[in-house]
Amino acid sequence: MAKQVKFSEDARGAMLKGVDKLADTVKATLGPKGRNVVLEQSAGNPTITNDGVTIAKAIELPDHFENMGAKLVSEVASKTNDVAGDGTTTATVLTQAIVNEGMKNVTAGANPVGIRRGIEKATKAAVDGLHKMSHDVKTKDDIAQSIFNFIS
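Structure tokens predicted for Molecular chaperone GroEL (152 residues):
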């Protein structure tokens, strides 16, 4: 089979469609009122789930370039699951937002490497800020105090 090749806006646009298709499907499960998704199985009954990584891994798009975009986001969900064990839907939604904003900037002429460096700096600043706000919780009293501080 001949290889398909796309460049510039054609390639970015197709991959972005795949990112959005996968993320929009997964994002339906977000939050306490998140909905379930029905996944077709090759054999047997369909699977009903609200697990972001399960949905992300199951999605295969017919367009090769859209599927590449979807697989990039699926990889984010898988890595998040491996490292944290949870938060895959949130990671997917954040990835979609970052990719969409990055694509807008690349289309407007921004340097993709510069965008990546900016994302890395912003990530470091956010993590550093979270570390400064965090504290050890060892007892039930610590938990109660943390909750009190949060709501007041």
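The mean pLDDT is 94.
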